[in-house]
Structures are given as structure tokens and as C-alpha cells.
Amino acid sequence: MKKLEEYVRSIPDFPEKGIIFRDVTSVLQDADGLHLAIDTMQDLIKDLDFDVVVGPESRGFIFGTPIAYNTGKPFVLIRKKGKLPCETVEKEYDLEYGTAIIEMHKDSIKPGQKVLIVDDLIATGGTTEAMIQLIESLGGEVVGVVVLMELAGLKGREKLSKYRLESAICYPGK
Questions:
Q1: Of 158, 152, 149, 174, residue with least CA distance to 40
Q2: Distance separating alpha carbons of residues 32 and 62, to the nearest angstrom
Q3: What pLDDT score does 152 carry?
Q4: Is 57 a catalytic residue?
Q5: Three-state secondary structure along the chain?
Q6: Catalytic: which of 59, 79, 103, 157?
Q7: What is the model's pLDDT at position 174?
Q8: Are 121 and 151 in contact (CB under 8 A)?
Q9: Per-residue pLDDT for 80 more than 80?
């Protein structure tokens, strides 16, 4: 059986020279790779007590929904501004070049609920930090974050040091 890392395609010099892009689509396009990714991520949080799974669009949906399903928990969406139909709360955060805004339904997290965030990647931690602030603004308690890949060289783990962060694959560089 292949290791999970072997399903990830690495593309040098994308999106710019000196960057190695870790392509999640190669994991998704292989049934064994997808199965291994979900199972590995779920195994990392098997001892975690949580009430709800939250995932950001779009790859957080892909990995979070099966984990929610397998654990019998509800799944809550975090989306880009303007994509959700009901009353929302939003959080603006910084990107490398500019800002972005994410939203979630105002009634999607109940005060006191224990929340697991699931996503494909953590790099600088900025998006995850914004998700945590959004969840906490609704009274939720983030008890863990699990990602398929971590780019350790970008120090996202340090930014989120007070939270439990699990990664199925950890790449040392950027």
C-alpha cells in the first residue's frame, strides 16, 4: 500500500519560482488516496470530543463532510462572502495581497458547542485563525483543527499554538 504522501503531486515553481505546490487533486482523483486521506485524518482526531464539524469552501467541504458523516456529527459550511442565503456573520482577514471575507450562517453554531475544523491545508494559519474567530463569535469552542497537509515552513502552527492542530502530512518547507 502506498503512503499518503505518495498520492500528493508536487509541482515545482508554481505559482512562482522557488515554490513547490502540493496538489491535493491527485489525492482526490485516486480512490485509494482519497480513502487513505479521510481515514488518516479521522484517525488523528479519534480521541477528540466534538459536537460539530466545520469546513471552509471548497476543499474543507471535501474532507470535512465524510468525517462528519463517519462520526455522526453535523457539518457546517464556511464560505466566501455572498454565497450563503440566510443571515450570516463574517470575518475579514489578510491575504498575501489584499484581504478576503468569509461567512457562516449566524445560527450554524450554538453557544457551547465543541467544534472541529477540517481543511486540506494549513500554511500561514491566517484563514484558520479567521475561521476560529468566526466560530468563537457565535459562542462555539474550537477543540481541534485537522488538515491533510501542513506547510511547516510558513509557521501556521505557531499562530494557532493554543489549539490542537493535527496534520496527516507535514512538509518542512514552504
A1: 149
A2: 15
A3: 94
A4: no
A5: CCCHHHHCEEEECCCCCCCEEEECHHHHCCHHHHHHHHHHHHHHCCCCCCCEEEEECCHHHHHHHHHHHHHCCCEEEEEECCCCCCCEEEEEEEECCEEEEEEEECCCCCCCCEEEEEEEEECCCHHHHHHHHHHHHCCCEEEEEEEEEEEHHHCHHHHCCCCCEEEEEEECCC
A6: 59
A7: 63
A8: yes
A9: yes
Instruction: Name the catalytic one among 5, 6, 96, 158.
Output: 96
Give pLDDT, residue 170: 96
Q: pTM here?
A: 0.96
Q: Is 79 a catalytic residue?
A: no
Show the domains of the chain with their CATH numbers. Answer: 47-171 (3.40.50.2020)
| All three cell numbers of 30 | 485516486
Alpha-carbon separation of residue 114 from 61, 145, 163 (angstroms): 18, 12, 12
Residue 104 scores a pLDDT above 90: yes
How many CB atoms lie under 10 A from the CB of residue 8? 20
Q: How far is CA 113 from the centre of its chain?
A: 18
CA 13 and chain centroid, separation: 24
